[in-house]
Amino acid sequence: MTTYTLIASTVVGSSTSVSLGSIPQGYDDLVLVWKGGSTSAPSNGYGFKVTFNGSTGGYQNLIMRNNAGVALSAYKYANWGYIQANTLGDEAPYEALVVMNISEYSKTNKFKNATVQFNAPTRPQQATIGARWDNTAAITSIQIGDDFGNSIYGRFYLYGIGN
Amino acid sequence: MGYELIETVTLDAGAAQSILFQNIPQDGLDLVVVCSFRGTGSAVTLCNVVFNGDNTNANYAGVAAIGNNGSANPDTNYPRPMFYIPDTRHLNFSFGTATVYISSYALTNAQKPVLTNGTVDNNSSNDYQTIHGSTWKNNSAITSILLPSSRNNLAQWSTASLYKITSS
């Protein structure tokens, strides 16, 4: 039976970065789920950012989103410093629900892909993000922050999918 | 509710034109196929999913939202479940990711709705992001799933895993 196994969880009140480290390598994929937000009102265009193994380069981002009822739009951030997990809600409490699937995180013969489903209900905005980290290293840690440098808060859960 | 692996196929030995799942057990609620594909061609490559050997487009209905190089467009030209695959123009080690969710696959009195989500990232051009909703207009239970490459072969190390969602 394949199961979702909780690897790590943390509740953060206010911090500029959340790190989930020492990720075991015995699973097939990872799922990172969090509901949280920023402690400050957002400026236009910032939101959650995610990096792997502390690396700040080689991330490719494709985003399709529906923002406040505007027609579906697409964005591309190539050779970025992080996975752009899209913008937070622009009305208090400036929050979002994010589900990130990370495929074959321990394979050393492939770059690493992540698919993000994103919902910022007070903006409102929904988005899907397809991201790739151009690195063959196994993912051993994940960092979550705010690309504008503000503090974030929330509940963060990391699951392993495997037999 | 469980999430049970039925089979994983990895092209360890070399490239192949497709990956096929056969004799799918009928005791699940839904199916999920998770793909990590790369193609051996040098141009745009797709995977158009086939159920029970039925590759007649008229037997499917589908609509897609496709993101490509920073623009998003609806597309009704792909009735079968589909997603893009990286090709030899993309960096080495880059594989595309796709998830195919198939609802009520074992029922014999209902058509089969499918939701597909795929991404091909690149750091220059030729990137694709797809959300595709489709229906196989057939009441038969799904017993096989073919995942073909539309151009040349699937590259070595391409992988597909088939899961079933169970009620316990």
Walk me through what this model shows.
The complex is a heterodimer of chains A (163) and B (168). By secondary structure, chain A is mostly beta strands. In chain A, 0% of the residues lie in helices and 60% in strands. The relative contact order of chain A is 0.38. In chain B, the strands form three sheets. Chain B has an eight-stranded antiparallel sheet with strand order 1-13-3-9-10-11-6-7, with no helix packed on it. In chain B, strands 2-12-5 form a three-stranded antiparallel sheet, with no helix packed on it. The chains are: A mainly beta (163), B mainly beta (168). At the A-B interface, strand 5, strand 6 and strand 10 of A face strand 1, strand 6, strand 7, strand 9 and strand 10 of B.
Please trace the helix and strand order of chain B, writing H or E for each element: EEEEEEEEEEEEE
Rg on CA atoms of chain A, Å: 15 Å
Q: N-to-C terminal Cα separation of chain B, in Å?
A: 5 Å
Biggest sheet features of chain A: 8 strands, antiparallel
Fraction in beta strands of chain B: over 45%
Structural class of chain B: mainly beta
Average pLDDT score of chain A: 90
Largest interface: A-B, 34 and 37 residues
The number of strands of chain B is 13
Topology:
The complex is a heterodimer of chains A (163) and B (168).
Chain A: E1 3-15, E2 17-20, E3 29-38, E4 47-52, E5 59-67, E6 73-80, E7 83-87, E8 95-103, E9 112-120, E10 125-133, E11 142-146, E12 152-162
Antiparallel strand pairs in A: 1-12, 2-11, 3-8, 3-12, 4-7, 4-11, 5-6, 5-10, 8-9, 9-10
Chain B: E1 2-10, E2 18-21, E3 30-37, E4 45-48, E5 50-51, E6 60-68, E7 71-75, E8 82-85, E9 96-102, E10 112-120, E11 128-136, E12 145-148, E13 159-166
Antiparallel strand pairs in B: 1-13, 2-12, 3-9, 3-13, 4-8, 5-12, 6-7, 6-11, 9-10, 10-11
